[in-house]
Amino acid sequence: MKTIYTLSFLALVMSCSSPTENKESDKAVRLITVDPGHFHAALVQKSMYDNVDSVVHVYAPEGTDVEFHLKRIDAFNTRAENPTHWKEEVHYGDDFFEEMINQKAGNVVVLSGNNKKKAEYISKSLQAGFNVLADKPMIIKAEDFEVLKSAFETAKLNNLLLYDIMTERFEITTMLQKEFSMLPDVFGVLQDGTPDNPSVTKESVHHFYKYVSGSILTRPAWFMDVAQQGEGIVDVTTHLVDLVQWECFPDQVLDYTHDVELINAKRTTTEMTLSEFKAITKLDAFPEYLKENVVNDTVLKIYSNGEINYKLKNVHAKVSVIWNYKAPEGAGDTHYSIMRGTKVNLIIKQGAEQQYKPVLYIEPLTHDAQFETTLMDNLKPVQTKYPGVELKKLESSWEVIVPDSYKEGHEAHFGRVMEKFLEYLNNHNIPDWEVPNMLAKYYTTTKALELAKQKK
Predict the structure, then answer these.
(1) Domain topology for 2-165
(2) Which single residue of 109, 178, 268, 316 could bond 247 by disulfide (Cβ 3.0 to 4.6 Å)?
């Protein structure tokens, strides 16, 4: 095992501060990052947090994954505006995970990388006494569901916290969609829907070629291997299934054994040429483990697209994800969502008309002369919680106008998740519904993959 220390100039200055100024050793939370192959691992550290030690121990095999991670952290440390002062203590070696377990250099393990062994890493970290903050997806196949279930039992038995990174709960239009759905005078109640006309639909479009923190994202080759990253139906759909649960049944415990009924699921491939693959991986050829999915040595087929049609309690829902190679000029990842109430539909659109920014619309189902008065009266409690939110009347609907101060962007949401995790960790106040609903979520995604694979 080889250890190095990576410090930016600013971090070095911070390390020279007196103990009375710094008192890092007194901070209760000490982070450990394990094999950070996904850029989400760095985004957790885009900000500093009270009561979190600035020294972070990183355990990983040598390679580009950890090198890119360290460069991202260094970029946060050296940026001009509000720089961070993380100090990354890196432990290299093929036995990195065993060394992490044995050295116990911290008390919170952050997992965001290759998903093939994530269930094992989660389980063994908890058994060794670590809390775990895991990027989605926690598991990518149904065989690991019992491992995850047992991991939550271990966490409960040992008073530890296992939590996943659900950033989309902090996207403002989604938060407001949920808020308006809880106003019965405006929304009515959530319709039951049908398989052909679900009550809730959530669609997400992502892109392999994208910018993160202002730079073109270099993706590891294994990200295109569904055996390591997971198929689209168990990856991005984790967010969508989570939002269905979070919005339709707020603060309610869901039981996967009888609240989830799968109706239909399907999976399709995205095609990526070798030149496109080179552009995002900086590799000249497809690795051997991808060859079985390569056609004519030039086109890689990735099962990155998926759709789940299911019933949650009485509510019919559909979630779907599509991965394209690159977004049109000026566009990016997009999201569409509709919640069908008995009085209005709440719709989030993010297309060209919205300049590829999410916008929430309130669409009445019938013409009611009194509806505008009712809507404006009910806007007041929303404004109390979200000051500055207004409504703009359109021809047949209302657009929810959101102040720019709420539009933080996807990267900032990782800080919000981290703050929530730290709150639960420090105050031991995780809601009763969080754990059973995480289980319901991963049961839904992994069972849907099984169902989709049964089809030819």
Answers:
(1) Rossmann fold (3.40.50)
(2) 178
End-to-end CA distance of the chain: 47
| Per-residue model confidence as pLDDT tens digits over 167-189 | 999 999 999 999 999 999 999 99
pLDDT value for 297: 87
Q: In what side-by-side order are the strands of the sheet with 108-111?
A: 2-6, 87-92, 55-60, 31-34, 108-111, 131-134, 162-164
318-337 pLDDT, tens digit per residue, is: 999 999 999 877 777 889 99
Domain ranges of the chain: 2-165, 169-413
What is the identity of the amino acid at 396? S
Residue type, 187: F
Q: Are 267 and 303 in contact (CB under 8 A)?
A: yes
CA dihedral 309, 310, 312, 317 (to 10 degrees): 20
Amino acid making up residue 137: P
Asked if 8 and 74 count as a contact pair (C-beta separation under 8 A), the reply is yes
The pLDDT tens digits for 64-93 are 999 999 999 999 999 999 999 999 999 999
Tokens for 26, please give them. 């007194």
CATH of domain 169-413: 3.30.360.10
Decide whether 2-165 matches 169-413 in CATH topology.
Answer: no
**Other CB atoms within 10 A of residue 120 CB:** 13
Q: Which residues are registered as beta bridge partners of 226?
A: none
Dihedral sign of CA atoms 217, 221, 224, 227 in order: negative
